[in-house]
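We store amino acids, tokens; thus:
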Amino acid sequence: MKHAERIAILDFGSQTTQLIARRLRDKGFYCEILPFNVNEELLFTPETKGIILSGGPASVHEKDSPHPNPALWSGRLPILGICYGMHLIGQHFGSPAVPGKQGEFGRAAILLQSDEAMWNGLGDRMDVWMSHGDHIEHVTEPLNQIAGSDVGLVAAIAHSEQPVFGVQFHPEVSHTTRGGELLRNFAANVCGCRGDWTMESFVELATREIRATVGNRKVLCAVSGGVDSTVTAVLLGRAIGEQLISLHVDTGLGRKEERQEIEKLLAKQEHIRLQVVDASDEFFRNLSGVTDPEQKRKIIGRTFIDVFQREAARVEGVQFLAQGTLYPDVIESVSVRGPSATIKSHHNVGGLPDTLRLTLIEPLRELFKDEVRAVGRLLGLPDAILMRHPFPGPGLAVRVLGEVTRERCDLLRRADAIFMEELVRSGWYSRTRQAFVVLLPVKAVGVMGDHRTYENVCVLRAVDTDDFMTADFTRLPYDVLARAANRIANEVRGINRVAYDITSKPPATVEWE
């Protein structure tokens, strides 16, 4: 999608690269994340106003450490280097980083020594978040030291003649006070961006792009009932009207009464024209005997597309498949931006077969979840849809650990429904970002009355997060957990033990598979 102006973020593998984009977008500046070695043509586009070099796990001293296209140093655009990005700047301009005998990790304080436009309004002291081993020991011309940390290390640098800056800390993380203001200063004061990118502008641009791409052809949209696919469908409906056919595939892997809820929620939405196909037998047949989570995701992806291709063949003129793929889906699936690690495949991204005969349309692909909700509100969707907790594309298949069967899914559905009821009743559903139940592939001994039981174990999971790139477990009250666990053990025949997952992301992921 083309915008009047953008900040290009080169990804050198930092796990917080996406947060740089989030902070800039929150301030109204459109940005795109590009591979660290992107070619000159894609980097220096007419709309690009500045470049940010992300952090990363490598050291500039390593033999195969990532380096940008040499054209970056041509002086055509302002540059801000963060951590590893700052080390690249230092290396190029004669102030190389050295291996750290004394690293800095976690909270730190820095003293600023400049009131230039880049540092305007930040004061002379900032609390920041450090995470580095290497550091620049001696700063020489044409670079100048702008800030030092409380342990005496170089914390920020600036070029004496060019708009090139480096910071050793991470302004994108919430632990850095006024980090968002620093990024805003770079975008506005240094790069001259207006900062007028909003969700309203996104809707208008996306609408025009969809119309230009689709023309007078038809689009088949996958609608799961979740926030992402529903917003995708409504946005497409606004753009192309009667050319849209929306389809819900009942995979048998949805939540309790999922199909009925979807039909009720979407019945009044203009241009949705929902059609439903029951393909549950096919999904369970293809998943029979499969326990590896990556295999599950790829099988579900292939089956999902197979069903869509069959349905598309029944509608004359359909040439496009629309999906509600989001940015975190892409980042966790394949390392398409920089040298970051692949975490897991998303069924929308990593499981598509080469034989796909429909062209993909993913209008939300560059958005985060909160941005999608904002788009949904602009399109008039109710909170009953927008505030629904996220649900994985592969559904219960990645919450039923081990082999996926209809019986085990039914068991999990009942337990999950009870947990959701207790969260809603206690007011905690709206206070946590995602909650669900996982069914483990193990059994435990229990007792009911005077009888020994040997039944399944389930785990409750609830997390707090701003962006799903990191997450912490929700501190649910014991009485809420106790009521949910007691009801599950008593009402769901086949589960006799309930646990609560208190692992953060990282080291875990939000979902178990």
Remarks:
- The radius of gyration is 25 Å.
